[in-house]
Specification:
Length: 566
């Protein structure tokens, strides 16, 4: 098929702009040549018609490298910078000069093997001679090469000064000084400096032809490498060793002292940290990591003594244990933990989900409901003087969560008290301040009475127990059915000798006594919220393990010193 004749550019280019990725040519800039001098002489050529020249149109679109679904609009065009002859001609009807190929014609690029290029580079430098290239390029092409370093705002330009001669660098002697590489300023350099210094808004470099450009031989010889598979393997090994060193340094830092362990992991001491891990390590030899719904199915290696298939894990069990505690204690983002331990973000999520579930199963039986004898044995003096039969102090705590998508979930989790979407849980502590009851999480709009009645708490109450709570717990009828007593601050009542409601002197004294003791459950909840994953906004993707997170945090709180001293 014969090539089309030379196409005429549009008569009014002010509305046209170049659709080539990375090209800044725009017809509106031609009205401000003082700011955009490189737009002088640039023309815009619209795409061939889809009906008259469909084949040529496809060739243009393939060269432009736009999206597959791209369809040129009315004012989309290709500027003259991308054509070898400055416009579509019979010999060169398709644009071939782009930023991705350094505005070189692909037809003229010499194709050779890597060995041939390397031999050419070696032969060109064997005699320590300097080869000079003085290939001339058009002003438009040079301007597009420098377009990425042009700052259009203030007219300032930062470009390397042209040189009259450039050399081919000897790759075998690259470590030597630059004495073999000569830079001889050409006469154009001083003109460029003087012109640029006199008028910052008029860039002479766009109006003159810079003859000194890097030769093709220099480019080809400069990019050659002697990289082998052994080198690649060595680089991969060095990367793994670097990750290992950084991981060990970080682990040593967060476990170097008792204060560091408390600060980073939320465990009182190093001794207790290794003691807990020793308990967990006994039964986690074949721990199955959560990777989706199908991860619960049994595998062959679990029922036999065969080794678990797959590559060897980067993290040890102890590292995974620390990773999980770090996520729970400080709520460090998964991507940052991955960088600290040298693993992917997905791997961090798998480890955290697996270990939280595993630790919850191990720790939950230790959140025991203490016996009455144990309560009396360790009853603090402050309780013995006022409420010696207190069995438990209860309160509800709320955890902020990310706003759910569905309206139903939003209404079920919205808390009017907090003004946010929350999860709510009923927690109870012994008189010494240890958690003895942690309910499952409920939506934030559920009342305290409803959670108390449906969380299994009442099944643990026996006759003669005293339950201390806030005024909001209207559960006296539930406790009376079990012959237990509710201890709450007294309500105000109507005054007989005046208006309003108030308390008498005895009720005020009782309110103060209850408030002094009930404050300990607030302190326990504050200790629970010291684990930042519970004090911040819980991501909605952690909802499946939110109950387990609460159980693990409550158990770790019980490892600390008692809140109430005897």
């Amino acid at each position: 098929m014969p090539s089309p004749k030379k196409r005429k550019s549009t008569d009014n280019p002010s509305h046209y702009w170049c659709s080539v990725p990375g090209c800044a040519s725009d017809g509106r800039k031609k009205a401000n040549l003082d700011i955009y001098p490189w737009m002088q002489g640039i023309q815009f050529h619209p795409y061939p018609g889809p009906k008259r020249q469909p084949k040529l149109r496809r060739q243009w679109l393939q060269q432009v490298f736009r999206d597959e679904n791209y369809s040129p609009k009315r004012y989309h065009s290709v500027c003259s910078l991308h054509f070898v002859d400055g416009c579509p001609t019979e010999n060169n009807p398709v644009p071939t000069l782009f930023p991705r190929n350094n505005f070189k014609n692909p037809k003229n690029v010499r194709k050779s093997t890597s060995i041939a290029k390397r031999q050419s580079a070696e032969s060109s430098t064997s005699t320590d001679s300097v080869s000079v290239s003085q290939n001339s390029h058009s002003t438009e092409r040079i301007a597009m090469e420098d377009i990425t370093i042009l700052y259009e705002g203030n007219g300032a330009i930062h470009i390397p000064l042209p040189v009259a001669h450039e050399c081919v660098v000897d790759t075998d002697q690259s470590s030597k000084s630059n004495e073999n590489c000569l830079e001889v300023p050409c006469p154009e350099t001083m003109d460029l400096i003087n012109a640029h210094g006199n008028n910052n808004s008029d860039h002479i470099y766009c109006k003159r032809s810079i003859e000194s450009r890097c030769s093709e031989d220099f480019v080809e010889s400069a990019v050659q490498t002697d990289l082998t598979m052994d080198d690649i393997h060595h680089m991969e090994t060095m990367t793994k060793e670097t990750d290992h060193i950084l991981r060990e340094q970080f682990v040593n830092r967060i476990t170097r002292s008792d204060s560091a362990v408390r600060k980073y992991l939320g465990i009182p001491s190093i001794t207790m940290l290794f003691g807990i891990f020793a308990i967990l390590d006994k039964v986690c030899t074949k721990l199955k990591y959560w990777s989706g719904k199908n991860s619960t199915s049994n595998m062959n290696y679990e029922t036999s003594e065969a080794r678990k298939p797959g590559p060897k894990r980067k993290l040890t069990k102890f590292h995974e244990f620390l990773l999980t505690l770090l996520r729970l204690r400080l709520s460090v983002p998964a991507f940052l933990i991955g960088d600290l331990f040298g693993v992917s973000e997905t791997r961090v999520s798998q480890v955290v989900c697996t270990w939280i579930n595993y630790m919850s199963q191990v720790f939950k039986p230790h959140l025991k409901w203490p016996s009455l004898q144990s309560i009396k044995k360790h009853m603090p003096r402050s309780f013995k003087q006022t409420f010696p039969r207190t069995r438990i102090i209860i309160d509800c705590t709320e955890i902020f969560i990310q706003k759910p998508r569905t309206p139903t979930a939003q209404s079920q989790t919205y808390s009017n008290y907090k003004g946010h979407n929350t999860f709510k849980s009923l927690v109870g502590i012994t008189p010494t301040g240890a958690f003895s009851f942690v309910s499952e999480l409920w939506g934030g709009n559920v009342s305290d009475r409803y959670i108390t009645a449906n969380s299994g708490f009442l099944d643990l109450i026996t006759a003669g127990d005293e339950v201390m709570a806030d005024r909001g717990f209207i559960i006296r009828d539930y406790l009376l059915e079990r012959r237990a007593k509710l201890v709450i601050p007294p309500f105000t009542h109507k005054c007989k000798w005046g208006k309003g409601k108030r308390l008498n002197s005895g009720e005020i004294q009782r309110t103060r006594q209850i408030a002094k003791l009930r404050i300990h459950v607030e302190r326990a909840i504050q200790r629970l919220k010291s684990y930042k994953l519970l004090s911040g906004i819980l991501p909605i993707n952690l909802k499946p393990i939110a109950n387990q997170i609460l159980v693990v945090a409550a158990f770790l709180c019980n490892l600390s010193k008692p809140l109430v001293k005897n």
